[in-house]
Amino acid sequence: MRIVVDAMGSDNFPRPDVEGAVLAAREYNVEIILTGDEARIKPLLAEFQAGNLPIHVHHAPEMLTMNDKGMALVLKAKRKNAQNSMAIGLDLVKSGEAAAFVTMGNTGAASVTAYFRLGTIPGVDRPALAPVFPTRTGTCVVLDVGANPDCKPNNLLEFAVMGSLYAERVRGVKSPRVGLLSNGEEAGKGNQLVRDAYPLLEASGLNFVGNIEGKELMAGEVDVAVTDGFTGNVMLKTAEAVARLILETVREKIQTGPLTAKLGGLLVRPTLRSVRRLLDPSEEGAAPLLGINGLVFIGHGRSDANAVKNAVRVALAAARANVVDAIHSDLAQRLAASTSAAKVSV
Amino acid sequence: MRIVVDAMGSDNFPRPDVEGAVLAAREYNVEIILTGDEARIKPLLAEFQAGNLPIHVHHAPEMLTMNDKGMALVLKAKRKNAQNSMAIGLDLVKSGEAAAFVTMGNTGAASVTAYFRLGTIPGVDRPALAPVFPTRTGTCVVLDVGANPDCKPNNLLEFAVMGSLYAERVRGVKSPRVGLLSNGEEAGKGNQLVRDAYPLLEASGLNFVGNIEGKELMAGEVDVAVTDGFTGNVMLKTAEAVARLILETVREKIQTGPLTAKLGGLLVRPTLRSVRRLLDPSEEGAAPLLGINGLVFIGHGRSDANAVKNAVRVALAAARANVVDAIHSDLAQRLAASTSAAKVSV
């Protein structure tokens, strides 16, 4: 099984990307194809002593950056002979030479390029970015967090089906509990979108537990949380910002506090570090862009080698679980069931 | 100046409500009217030795609870001779006998009752609940967080005007920086609502700094954050849930950790407690329901006496700043300016 890693993705490309690929090849017994600037990648492979590992370099003379957006990005993403590291990597997935594509690059650029090069799974209207949130008892797949700022009820149903399948197949959760993110737990709460999506989820045959708030999500009461990409994105970024604010404030108060606080701070430092690690997105490496007709994983720009390595691990698990085929067959069934049930209930 | 406090609001009513009113009367030199069950309030006033304080009791034989919602609530809220503690309290504001109404009761019940008994300020389409978030450098007024799950661009403009005025008049911020909550900082980011509201805010004459994410909000880069009530509510509850998760995890890891962690935990306990206090909504007491034609403040059901006292302080400040009149005159000007500017730019 082969995984493509975009060597030009992370903020500090190509070092963390190449080092992470090397670590993954060493640890997971997986073949890696690195796409990007050969002249910059090869010396790093030598430095990381990757000589005997199954790592190939596929030269890509161009790359997409944070500046790629809008119509110009669409044109680049569609161009037949696109020479950037994302397009070349995604084409390797399309041709079957690789099982998944991993990048730490611009989320928008990766999503748009994936959309035009691989298309969507038949039956999927909108792909969704589905990261994993840490919770009190484990993790929760949240989708969408940004690919679709404006959604229709049917999109949320698709997200629920795809998220549930992903939690089950890749994260090993039996009969994943699916919640609909809302401004109150009771049925009937929500904006128009949530109120319209609720009956579709209810009729889907999924293990739908109803509306949830951030409280239930963080408490680990669901395995999948469904929301539109605007709300999901605001929630994700707020959660990250609040976590950072609290841990920084604790550190600052310890540093500027009395001697007892400083001493206590030294003693609890390993504890605080372990909490920070719990909240660290690099443990998951990258989030799948579910609904694309091929496996695509997108990680944080600030990823280090460890995050890249973990992203390859997650991509490998998804490839072994055959997630794309599973979504394809399951979605058709559920959409039919949900639509007919909704019709009956009307 | 007189403030009405709903004695039947908090989860543990009427004790925290009455005690908070007593503390406020003692500390802020303000006259208080308590609405609620006289037979339960009077013994508490005696217990808290309120004999010589300017506290009046206005008997209300009924009360609204968490079960009051939907059409039944609307009917109760509209009823001419409503006898519940919220309606009676709000009528005292309407008649001019009191300058503001404070309750720790059901947010939905309080909002709907306020809407029907006081109406909205002319020019305001939708009132907005506007709590204060703690940030790295101070605080930020966020609105709406729940009164309006579905908004139009013009509603966000109203929220911006009202939030800015509130930050300036009541919180003493000069030329408050107003941000529009979005899924990215650049202009052009956002869902349809945000993209449509952006030019209205730009033309409003407010100190509009553009789109913001949770990061900028928590970093203290704006004084007012504008959003629809659905997104705002999800954000608020997620922020609370993340904060709780982190502080609980830290405590748990200290308790189950090695002896050094336990000792360190004892030494940093005052530090952690001060961080928790920073995040404690009771410091602000209650959030204003801006846009109602009268001052209404709604606090958490789990408020203690201290939170009730703080809510009276905030209500008093708003009454002294003449917030309702200010919104009335300012809104008319800004809406006219923004609408004509938006027309010109089209």
If you had to describe this structure to a student in words, what would you say it looks like?
Two copies of one chain form a homodimer. Chain A is an alpha/beta fold. Chain A folds into two domains: 194 residues, Isopropylmalate Dehydrogenase, CATH 3.40.718; 150 residues, 3-Layer(aba) Sandwich (Isopropylmalate Dehydrogenase). Chain A is 50% helix and 15% strand. Chain A contains twelve helices and twelve strands. In chain A, the strands form two sheets. The first copy, chain A, has a seven-stranded mixed β-sheet with strand order 3-2-1-4-12-11-5, sandwiched between helices. In chain A, strands 6-7-10-8-9 form a five-stranded mixed β-sheet, with helices on both faces. Chain A is globular and about 60 Å long. At the A-B interface, helix 8, helix 9 and helix 10 of A face helix 8, helix 9 and helix 10 of B.
Rg value of chain A: 21 Å
Write down the CATH class of the largest domain in chain A: Alpha Beta
Order of helix and strand elements from N to C terminus of chain A: EHEHEHHEHEEEHEHEHEHHEEHH
Strand portion of chain A, in percent?
Answer: 15-25%
Residue windows where pLDDT falls under 50 for at least 5 positions of chain A: none
State the CATH architecture of the largest domain in chain A.
3-Layer(aba) Sandwich
What's the structural domain tally of chain A? 2
Please tell me what the overall shape of chain A is: globular
Helix content of chain A: 40-55%
Query: Tally of extended strands of chain A?
Result: 12
Helix segment tally of chain A:
12
CATH topology assignment of the largest domain in chain A: Isopropylmalate Dehydrogenase
Give the CATH superfamily of the largest domain in chain A: Isopropylmalate Dehydrogenase
Quick check: average pLDDT of chain A? 92
Largest sheet: number of strands, sense, barrel closure of chain A: 7 strands, mixed
Distance between the termini of chain A: 48 Å
Main sheet strand line-up of chain A: 3-2-1-4-12-11-5
The helix-and-strand class of chain A reads: alpha/beta
Oligomer: homodimer
| Biggest interface pair, counts | A-B, 60 and 60 residues
